[in-house]
Amino acid sequence: QGGRQSGRAQRLRPLAGALLLTGALSCHRAARLGPDGAGNAAWSAYAVRFATLPQFRVRGLIAGADSSRRLDIPVMVIVLRRPDGSMALIDAGFFRQKFLDQWKPKDYRRPPDALRAAGFDPARVTDIIVTHVHWDHADAAELFPDARLWLQREEFEYYVGPGGEALKPAIDRDVAAMFRRLSDTGRLGLIEGDDQEVLPGVRVYTGGKHTWASQYAAVRLSSGTLVVASDNAYLYENIESRVPIAQTLDAASNLRAQQRMLELAGSIARIVPGHDPAVFTRFDRVAEGVARLR
Question: What is the pTM for the complete model shown?
Fold first, then answer.
């Protein structure tokens, strides 16, 4: 009998070890996400402006807009903060000198510096959800060396070649090479399509068609659902006037995505467009260029 018990104990050791490992991973996950272990009601959200593109043509944002209209548009990152102070970002911004030379932004700060000035520690960014591959949303991802990036698989495969080459004009060659490096080093997570939970309490959706597989996010806050549209809706005017964005691969799909944003958020007051200066007046101002999203 003692021999049978000894053999049984040996057989159970691997299972016990696996259960201990699973438990340890669960504890690590709970510690990372907050005291509820799910993080679903744990996020607080902020818009942080790091630059302004002056006198941007509204016709480049709103399909069919008067060609004489101009608007100073913000370039921002969205900060999602957990109770323990760790953070995820939606989009990363830009930093390469060639973009500064070409677009001549006003009041520019590197995105990590803008976060620091707003009271956030950029070293505590654990994840970055990149909504699409354009330079102003993706370029600065490498300035957050401890963060894991999340991008739609279709977006990645459509724009980034196996050697890091840019497969389409919509992606900058340095941004394409960066995505390939991050993929090769295991820092890029690829999302498999529409309506996917990337982080607990953060789901992403496709269909906006700003780029091949651009995505937008719905974030569960304690006060309800916040929708971060990114460039799938540049301005509130797109949504309020039911007008597609000027730069879309499929205008009808873009309008359907805007309607879905309204359904997810429950109100336009809980949507954050990609480049609307009104974000910093419609939401609570925390500091210059910083708004609390709720």
Answer: 0.86
E-assigned strand segments in the chain: 44-57, 70-81, 87-90, 125-129, 148-152, 188-191, 196-199, 202-206, 215-221, 224-230, 271-273, 284-287, 290-293
Is residue 73 classed exposed, middle or buried when 0-12, 13-18 and 19+ CB atoms within 10 A define those classes? Answer: buried
pLDDT interval class at 42 (50, 70, 90): confident
DSSP secondary structure letters along 29-44:
HHHHH-TTSS-TTTBE
Q: Is the pLDDT of residue 5 over 60?
A: no
> Do the Cβ atoms of 206 and 212 come closer than 8 Å?
no
Rg of the chain on CA atoms, in Å: 21
Which positions ≥6 away from 56 have C-beta within 8 Å?
Answer: 70, 71, 72, 73, 275
Q: Specify whether the CB–CB gap between 64 and 80 falls below 8 A.
A: no
Nearest to 93 by CA among 125, 137, 52: 137
- 124: pLDDT confidence band, cut at 50, 70 and 90? very high
Contacts with 283 (C-beta within 8 Å, 6 or more apart), sequence order = 47, 272, 291, 292, 293, 294
Alpha-carbon gap, residue 226 to 80, rounded angstroms:
11
- Which run of H or E residues covers position 264? helix 251-265
- In the DSSP assignment, the letter for residue 158 is H
Dist. CA 210–CA 234, nearest whole Å: 10
Instruction: List strands edge to edge, sheet with 196-199.
Output: 196-199, 202-206, 215-221, 224-230, 271-273
